[in-house]
């Protein structure tokens, strides 16, 4: 069975807003995540931000169908971030910093704007002019670098405090941030 992005995106978004779906095994809606699950969510989220940042760094050097293929990898990673965010949202739902970071990502639509841009690159990247590519890249990085990634850093900081492991992770930035 094949799944298209347009069929899967609503499923991912529904699971993002419902803590009863798409939780890692062993984590029920009422269960508290273990430190291992929190660390795993944090590390996987960081890996996903790295994939998106790698794409955004490479966009100026990509041509034609390369853009669309690389954008698909980035879009899949961006959507996967929602699953990891969900674990941390559940664990830290009452933390004021997480509430504020979630507001930036979800309520202000910054995360969705990155998804939309990646979707455009995936669907139209091969036919876009260099000027259109540059404009979309700049617009995406403006939002992602100034709002999305700092909000993700907040999630990582709060998680790091809980884990008390001495690590201070930051979301990976593209080179053209």
Report the CATH C-level class: Mainly Alpha
Rg: 16 Å
Roughly what percent helix? over 70%
Shape: elongated
Q: Number of domains in the coordinates?
A: 1
- H-E order: HHHHHH
How many angstroms does the end-to-end distance come to? 38 Å
Give the uncertain stretches in residue-range form.
Answer: 1-30
CATH architecture: Up-down Bundle
Structural class: mainly alpha
Number of helices: 6
Number of strands: 0
Indicate the CATH topology.
Four Helix Bundle (Hemerythrin (Met), subunit A)
Mean pLDDT: 84
Strand content: under 5%
Assembly type of the shown chains?
A: single chain
The main β sheet shows up as:
none
Describe the 3D structure.
The protein is mainly alpha-helical and 177 residues long. The protein has one domain: Four Helix Bundle (Hemerythrin (Met), subunit A), CATH 1.20.120. The chain is built from 6 helices and no strands. It has helices spanning 5-17, 35-58, 65-91, 96-107, 110-124, 130-163. Helix 1 packs parallel to helix 3 (65-91), helix 2 packs antiparallel against helix 6 and helix 3 (65-91) runs antiparallel to helix 5 (110-124). The protein is elongated, with a radius of gyration of 16 Å. The chain starts with a helix and ends in a 14-residue tail after the last helix. Residues 1-30 have low confidence and may be disordered.
Question: Could you list some keywords that capture this structure?
Answer:
177 residues, mainly alpha, Four Helix Bundle (Hemerythrin (Met), subunit A), 6 helices, 0% strand, elongated, disordered N terminus
